[in-house]
Structure formats: C-alpha cells, structure tokens
Write a structure and sequence with these properties.
Elements (H helix, E strand, L loop, with lengths): L10 H25 L11 H26 L5 H25 L9 H16 L4 H12 L12 H4 L16 H19 L3 H6 L6 H11 L1 H23 L1 H20 L4 H17 L3 H6 L4 H18 L2 H5 L1
Helix pairs in contact: 1-2, 1-9, 1-10, 2-4, 2-7, 3-4, 4-7, 5-7, 11-12, 12-14
C-alpha cells in the first residue's frame, strides 16, 4: 500500500495567504479603532466595511479548500491533518473563552477558526470525490440561504447553520450556509488547476523579491498570526484608549450624526437640521446631559431640561415658535 503523498508546495498560494492575513489584520485593527471610538466609522455594520470583511473571509475560506487539495489530494494524510486540525480547534476554544470574558454579550462561539475546523472535516469528503459532487453541493450551500430562513436559527444554538432572520449578537459568526461553499469553490478550483497545464506554470512561480518572500513567509504562518494578532492589537489600542479617551472626543460627532439623521427623517431640510443639532449639542454640554443621552436613564429634572432644549432649538429654526410661546 502506497502512503499518501503531499502535492508540491505552490509559492503563489503562500503569497495569497500572506496577502489575506495582512488584510485580516488591517481589518481587525480598524475594527478595534472603531470599537474604542478612535475613528467614526462603524466597522462592524457600515455596508462598505461589511463588504470588505466578507471579501477577506471568502478568500480565507477559499484558500482552506485549496490547502485541503494540495495537502490531501493524493490521499488523506491523517497524521498531518489531525495535528493541524487540533491546533485550529485549540485556537477556536481560546478565542471563545477570551471573548466571553472581554465581550460577554457578544462572545465568539462560531467564528472563523471554529468554521475552519468544521469545514476542514467536511471538505475532506470532497477532495477525492467525483468533481461533479462538490460543484453541486457548493451551488446548493451558497444558494440555499437566499431562499430559506426561519426564526429558529436566530438562536445561538442553531445560528451556526446560517438560516437566521436576525443574527444573534456576536463579534464573529461564520455559518455553514453559505460559507462552506467558499471552501468547496477552493477545492473545485484547485482540482481543476492540478488537472490542467496551468499547474506546472503555477508551481514554477518562486518569490524572488523581498516583498513576495515576506508574503510567502507570512502565508506559511498565517494560522499562528491569526491567533496572536488580536491580543497584540488590543494590547496596544486598549491602553491608548484608556489614556486618550477617544470616546469623549468622538461623542460630539456621534451626537450630531444621530441628530441629523433623526431630524431629516422628520422632514426638516438638511441645512435647518444642522442648525438645530448644533444648538442641541451646545445645550447638552451646557446642562451636562451627556449621561442621560448616553445611558437613556433620564431623571424628571433632566427630562424637563431636554424638553426645554427641544423647544429652544426648534425656535431657532422656526422663529414663528417664539411668537407663539
């Protein structure tokens, strides 16, 4: 019986992993800056940031599929597979425990590493299967969430499958549907490449400059980098936030943005809303109402001040209200 043999290493794949891990680190750095209010963007929810995050995730999972074929396409190398798989599982458990203590309301219970661990196991079934099978399954896995959802999957216990209507609160959730489809696409693409003349040309690509060599090095250690990069980033950003108090400096911007949106939604012109909201900001600062604004816990006296503020600022943009009082 012939032992399973690993396919030749493709430097271009390591380089791609290196680019992907740099993109992931950069995104998480921006997320940290947003969370601690160093920047105004809401990285977790703004559509353009969500698109960036999903694009990076898709590349990562695609490369998981690529790695499965390159590592096990000539036969499953079980010892190597389990060694790497246990490392991923350990990393996933560490992330769950750490985020539970840091973000108890939104801890990560099925994030990127959890998904990679499960998807790697599932993906093995398609590495040596007839090629039509991963093609059919990939199309199904990717398409099905667009046609089916159910409130049952809003619960954490079932949300990892991906058919929710409202996702549960968590800082990272990578469900089976549709994301396992990205792994399958990586498997399909790599099998097609290995069966073609393109394989030899890609295998011949070798990093010759400093940047390609650096990217290839980062790609070979991408899993370790993924595990350690957030603790390092938080170790820098959190103390800086404690000292510089960026949330205090940013709250004026947040107040004006929220006020402007609410004011315009009520039918008032943008220019008049700017004046109204600036007036409101001045009154909040003058009457020290930040705690009431930020917590929503308003005393009777604070409510009187807020009502008076609303009347005063409304009169600024609608002078006729002054004569009516």
């Amino acid at each position: 019986m012939t032992a399973a043999v690993k396919s030749p290493r493709f430097a271009i794949v390591d380089i791609a992993r290196g680019v992907a891990i740099i993109a992931m680190v950069a995104y998480h750095f921006c997320w940290d800056l947003s969370y601690f209010r160093f920047i105004a963007a809401d990285v977790g929810y703004d559509p353009q940031w969500v698109f960036i995050a999903r694009s990076i995730l898709a590349v990562f999972l695609f490369l998981v599929g690529v790695g499965l074929v390159l590592g096990h396409g000539n036969g499953i190398r079980w010892r190597s597979f389990w060694r790497r798989w246990l490392f991923v599982v350990a990393g996933a458990l560490i992330i769950t425990v750490a985020t539970y203590f840091v973000f108890p309301q939104s801890f990560v219970y099925f994030g990127v590493l959890h998904a990679i661990a499960l998807f790697s196991l599932m993906g093995l079934a398609f590495v040596l299967a007839p090629l039509w099978l991963p093609i059919v399954v990939a199309a199904t896995v990717i398409a099905l969430p667009f046609f089916h959802s159910d409130p049952l999957f809003n619960q954490k216990a079932w949300s990892w499958l991906g058919f929710w209507q409202v996702p549960p609160p968590t800082n990272d959730l990578v469900p089976v549907f549709p994301w396992f489809g990205a792994v399958l696409l990586g498997i399909i693409a790599t099998r097609l490449v290995l069966a073609s003349n393109l394989s030899a040309r890609l295998a011949a690509i070798a990093p010759s400059g400093r940047l390609p060599r650096l990217l290839a090095f980062l790609g070979r250690w991408s899993l370790l980098i993924y595990l350690i990069h957030q603790p390092i980033l938080l170790g820098l950003v959190y103390p800086a936030a404690s000292i510089l108090q960026p949330q205090v400096a940013m709250r004026d911007t947040d107040f004006l943005r929220s006020c402007q949106s609410t004011c315009e939604a009520g039918g008032t012109s943008a220019a008049m809303c700017v004046t109204y909201c600036q007036c409101g900001l001045e009154q909040v600062e003058a009457n020290d109402l930040w705690n009431a604004i930020e917590t929503g816990m308003v005393t009777a006296a604070e409510q009187e001040l807020l009502d008076a503020q609303n009347r005063q600022c409304s009169a600024v943009i609608y002078p006729e209200l002054n004569s009516a009082q």
